[in-house]
Specification:
- The structure is a single chain.
- The protein is of the alpha/beta class and 241 residues long.
- It has one domain: Rossmann fold, CATH 3.40.50.
- It is 38% helix and 19% strand.
- A 7-stranded mixed β-sheet has the order 3-2-1-4-5-7-6.
- The chain binds S-adenosylmethionine.
- The site of S-adenosylmethionine has 18 residues, from loops.
Length: 241
């Protein structure tokens, strides 16, 4: 969840983007482990992947790991923020991997005009879906799922509230205690949680009405939950049913 305390905090080209690498570690307990788990999943499910797509690679921390485990893969990176692209490009230069990546400097919706259906062995969007309000989440999910090749993998993570209000309140109260342990003030905690379903929207794939294009992705497998963040895996059927 958004850890900065004003309404413009999701400006990835401004202060929020500048501080993203530190604030995400406040938002996602065990962020490094979370990324390692994503990389392990890709290595386990599509070690021979050739063409991978990342939507919103942010500062490039996940990309560094993915390039290391998917050694045959080229990555298409869809990232609208110039600031986040510049952080990501600096990471790529450090590991000499610039040549393995193509950029689409735009949003997913616009990138769809040039992305070919069913052409990626892995489609990855970590911590993207919660930036979209619910109607746009469904649209983005359909767009992403059409890009997965037969037999391919889709990996998503998002801020995701529990549908059971009692369980949800429990997790929220744990998340609040964690922020207190980190020394965040009560006023800041209130501000952070005021972004819920205002600028950060819960995403839950079980609530999506999937269209005919996405049926052969099957049900999501929830791989991880840490506080209010979850990660899911889909494997597209190799052939149409
Ligand atoms: C919360 S960050 C996630 C970064 C990284 N994937 C991670 O898990 O730490 C979201 C990223 O998605 C990008 N983004 C925002 N809106 C987008 C859109 N409509 N299409 C593609 N990327 C978008 C942002 O610029 C940012 O880099």
């Amino acid at each position: 969840m958004n850890q900065k305390v004003n309404s413009s905090s999701l400006d990835f080209d401004g202060e929020y983007g500048l501080r993203y690498r530190s604030s995400v570690r406040g938002s996602i307990p065990g962020y490094e482990t979370f990324l390692e788990f994503a990389a392990s999943t890709l290595k386990s499910q599509c070690p021979e992947a050739q063409d991978c797509l990342i939507i919103g690679p942010g500062a490039g921390e996940e990309l560094t790991l993915f390039l290391g485990v998917l050694t045959n893969a080229r990555f298409t990176l869809v990232e609208p923020s110039a600031q986040m692209r510049s952080f990501c490009m600096a990471e790529l230069q450090k590991i000499n991997a610039t040549e393995r990546c193509n950029w689409i400097a735009n949003t997913l919706a616009i990138a769809m005009k040039e992305l070919k259906a069913e052409s990626f062995d892995a489609v990855i969007a970590l911590n993207l879906m919660h930036l979209f309000p619910p109607a746009k989440q469904a649209e983005a999910f359909d767009q992403l799922s059409t890009l997965v090749a037969p037999g391919g993998t889709m990996l998503l993570s998002s801020y995701s509230e529990n549908l059971n209000p009692l369980s949800n309140n429990l997790i929220v109260s744990i998340a609040i205690e964690r922020l207190r342990i980190q020394g965040i003030t009560e006023e800041q905690i209130k501000m952070i949680f005021s972004s819920r379903n205002q600028s950060v929207f819960s995403f839950d794939p079980s609530r999506l009405v999937s269209n005919s294009k996405v049926k052969d992705l099957g049900a999501p497998l929830q791989l991880m939950q840490v506080g209010l963040i979850r990660m899911w895996l889909w494997i597209r059927a190799s052939t149409k049913a």
